[in-house]
Amino acid sequence: MEEFFGLTLSRLEAQIGALGKEKYRARQLFRWVYNQGNLDFREMTNIPKSLRSVFSEMFSLDTMPIAEERSSRDGSTKLALVTRDAHVIEVVIMPEKSRVTLCVSTQIGCRMGCRFCVTGKIGFKRNLSAAEIVGQVITAREYLRKAGKSPVTNIVFMGMGEPMDNIDNVATALDILKDQSGLDLSYRKITLSSVGLVDGLKTLSAKSAVIAISLNAADDETRSMLMPINRLYSIGRIMDFARGFKGTKRTRITFEYILIKGVNDSLDDAKRLADLLTGVKCKINLIPYNPSSYTEFERPERGEVDRFHQYLIERYFTVIIRDSRGQDVGGACGQLGMGYLGGAPDPAAPDTKETTASEVTS
Ligand code: SF4
């Protein structure tokens, strides 16, 4: 039986066409499943009963079992979803005033080995299939529907794994998530975050998602220490890509900069960052580091964060301080996958009262 959530509309049309049936049935299925949110073939009443029965034997609409659900003090929820081969994928639901963002994973573990990231410590287990990527979205949607909560409006590919290292499956998942007969998510509702694998970004940015690049340092020495992939995809290569990126104000690249105490949080670092990004159409997200007993770094004091922020504002950048959600449940940026290391969320993680991101536009 094939997993429905891994099929693009065109592949579904081909499969249904191969049965000798009308191709428009594929669009009807897409509408039922993604648009109407109905996962029961028996209820798809505009499709003949005999065909519904064929579809129910051909395609699986099973969501992923939820092994664990942890609610943060800040309102976000981390779900541990179980794959068919018994791996665990963690997704984080983050409600805000006017939207609900879902952070999805693209791999089990990760081979990028960023030193500040728990997922990087796990190592690489395997890529997630397109069905598993879309399945996270549908499972979270079902979870929210049953809980009577608002549905997901935005998706960020910032969970476990590097999306560009699983580019084919991510591209297929994007096609499915954006299909107008289905969830119809516009490019502004989807953010792809990458350590800067620019070859993949060049391919996928054509798919029109918002691009976020995890930069974290403005000099190669510091960045290579934090992110070994920098030896292959250096800051210079990333800047070449960023300068050539044809985005509008809305699609300009976001640079993520995790502020780590004593490593990249000085005023000199802020100046280097400002010099590097001058002339590049971009937005900067400053993310105070989320400590974990599995990584060696510390979070800067709030005053240091504010000083860094203020410097960039004075250099006329659009800067947001983004305190990650779900730190108390191991659901924050760089914390996913603790279960693979045998651990629980760090009880010493800082309190996470909802922090309003202070956005300053130049
Ligand atoms: S930060 Fe992202 S790319 Fe780096 S190790 Fe963690 S999951 Fe992988």
Any overview of this molecule?
It contains eleven helices and 15 strands. It is of the alpha/beta class. The protein has two domains: 2-60, Orthogonal Bundle (DNA polymerase, domain 1); 66-360, Aldolase class I (TIM Barrel), CATH 3.20.20. The strands form three sheets. The chain has an eleven-stranded mixed beta sheet with strand order 3-4-5-6-9-10-11-12-13-14-15, with helices on one face. Strand 12, helix 10 and strand 13 form a beta-alpha-beta unit. Helix 5 crosses helix 6. The protein is elongated, with a radius of gyration of 21 Å.
CATH architecture of the largest domain: Alpha-Beta Barrel
Number of separate domains: 2
CATH fold node name of the largest domain = TIM Barrel
- Judged by helices, strands and strand pairing, the structural class is alpha/beta
CATH class of the largest domain: Alpha Beta
Uncertain spans: 344-362
Small-molecule components bound: iron/sulfur cluster
Question: If helices are DSSP runs of H or I spanning 4 or more residues, what is the number of helices?
Answer: 11
Topology (elements, then pairings):
Blueprint: E1 2-3, H1 9-18, H2 24-35, H3 49-58, E2 59-60, E3 66-71, E4 77-82, E5 88-95, E6 100-103, E7 107-109, H4 118-122, E8 124-127, H5 130-146, E9 154-157, H6 167-178, E10 190-194, H7 198-205, E11 210-214, H8 220-226, H9 235-244, E12 253-259, H10 267-277, E13 282-288, H11 302-314, E14 319-321, E15 359-360
Parallel strand pairs: 1-2, 6-9, 9-10, 10-11, 11-12, 12-13, 13-14
Antiparallel strand pairs: 3-4, 4-5, 5-6, 7-8, 14-15
Helix pairs in contact: 1-2, 5-6, 10-11
